[in-house]
Amino acid sequence: MRNSLIIAKRELMLFFNSIVAYIFLFVFLGFSYWFFFRGFFYYAQAEILEMFNVLPWSFFVFIPAITMRAFAEEKRSGTIEILMTYPVTECEFVFGKFLAVVIFIGITLILTLPLFGMICYLGDVDEGRILCGYFGSLLLGASYASLGLFASSLTKNQAVAFILGLIFCFVFMIIGEDIVRVTLKGKLQEVLYETGLIRRFDSMKRGVIDSRDIVFYFSFIGFFYYLTFRQMTKSE
Amino acid sequence: MIGIEVIGISKNFKDIKAVCDVSFSIDTGEIVGFLGPNGAGKTTTMRILTTYLKPDKGTAKIKGFDIIDDSKEVRKRIGYVPENAALYEEMSVIEYLEFVCSLRGISNNQRKERIKNVIDRCGLEEAIQKFVGELSKGYRQRLCLAQALIHNPEILIFDEPTHGLDPKQIIEIRGLIKEIGREKTIILSTHIMQEVTACCSRVIIINRGEILATGRPDELSAQIYGGRVINVILTKETPTEIQFEFEKIASVKNVIKKEHIDGWLYEIVSEKDIETRRAIFEIVRSKNATLLELTAKKREFEDIFLEIINGQSDPSERKNSTEDRENT
Description:
The complex is a heterodimer of chains A (236) and B (328). Chain A has 236 residues and is mainly alpha-helical. Chain A has helices at 2-17, 19-43, 49-67, 69-77, 79-83, 90-110, 113-122, 127-153, 158-174, 178-181, 186-195, 197-205, 211-235. With 328 residues, chain B is α/β, with parallel strands linked by helices. Chain B is built from 12 helices and 14 strands. Chain B has helices at 42-49, 71-77, 93-103, 108-122, 137-149, 167-180, 193-199, 217-225, 242-248, 274-286, 301-311, 315-327, and strands at residues 2-13, 16-27, 31-35, 57-62, 65-66, 78-81, 155-159, 185-190, 202-207, 210-215, 228-234, 252-260, 263-270, 291-297. In chain B, the strands form 3 sheets. In chain B, strands 6-7-8-3-9-10 form a 6-stranded mixed beta sheet, with helices on both faces. A 4-stranded antiparallel beta sheet of chain B has the order 2-1-4-5, covered by helices on one side. In chain B, helix 4 (108-122) crosses helix 5 and helix 8 (217-225) packs parallel to helix 12. The radius of gyration of chain B is 25 Å and the shape is elongated. Chain B starts with a strand and ends with a helix. Chain A binds chain B through residues 3, 6-7, 10, 13-14, 17-18, 77-79, 81-89, 236, and chain B through 47, 50-54, 72, 75-76, 78, 80, 82, 84, 86-91, 95, 99-100, 102-105, 144, 147.
């Protein structure tokens, strides 16, 4: 765990030393604030749901952009060769990278809290429901991060990692959607419905905490974390 | 005590045999050169020793710890300088060294002293505030060396440590390796013969994934040539029987006559040097021949290396086959 924290710290330092993190924060917050205020003035309700509605789509674009370099760049530049001769296990290495992305997502979500504060000030708000939405957002972001990191572990090319990340995230976003579901039948329809990331987020953003959703998210993250770990040990 | 013990390691990349049943051992305090042309299997062997790659067959022990079963213990005891000094370009030199210290588990109170020590030792004073991406190739290599030394490892593994450096930097890095080698076990892979002669006490020659020869450079020379080579150049008018007179000298093992631009060149392989040269001179005088040159040729290590690589066989085998040919 100690080594994972050291790696996560270095990754975060790397994010904030480069312009990518600031572009991400600026565009992501711009999106979030725009969609919030658009709905806010239109419906004139102390409600943050509009921001949560657009969140899966902004995560879909931005998280693969954040994760694309994680392993691809280490492999391309050869820095992994030295790193893997330090007393760090592959498991700690992958977890450190994952932790950094999740912390970064957490920071971006914290930066949307002024909106939460504002609606609390202006109206009567169900805080529990909104906090549940934030928790769901973090789980959704972490799930996207596990997909993005897995995509990055498959290649040495950052652009390829980004596109693969987009594809993976898109697939797991849409498979729970009704439009996809109606085209399928039987067991496959059931399985795909259960693995859709947005479907589960939809209930959390409305304040419904179902232990099945939490277990699903953790299992999903764990599964792709394991695939990334396998990929990293295999490529060595 | 054995520092590194390699036991029958093999590694294939798809259909390519990178390393094939390689075994050797290195004692504590030795500097051993791992010499071979590009693609010989040097880097693969180095990567296996650092635990970065896992062998398909066989294993290796570093200070008694198995590279497969005790990889974390092995990693604690080694310092590695890869062929390309790939370092995190976005970090400053000091940040990078601090990062390595944290991963190496060096405590906060020791950290400052260790960093200062490697900065002084590797000559990084002028670069400490610079970003790694701004460093010249020479400074990157020094930083790579610094990260390998920072935890004071017992074993150092260098893969082409002077790759891409200018002659001045090469001399500096070699000097540093020799200095470190006084107290550490070092294995140094290279395809540059001068590097081996400049730094190493022993050499292991590898080609196409197989070890061809091992020993001190002078031992290998003696194994291949069976002695010193003396070159004698005489004018065209020299009587042909002079070759038989040379062969009669007790210390002479072989005489080869070749055409030369100024006359005839006799390559005489001898067990002794001064005595043989004296006897050759006496023969030339007694035959009234005109001596143009008489030199004891010191075989360069380069020649030995090329001889082994071109033959792709063990020096002892080569010697036997030469003897067989002579007997027939």
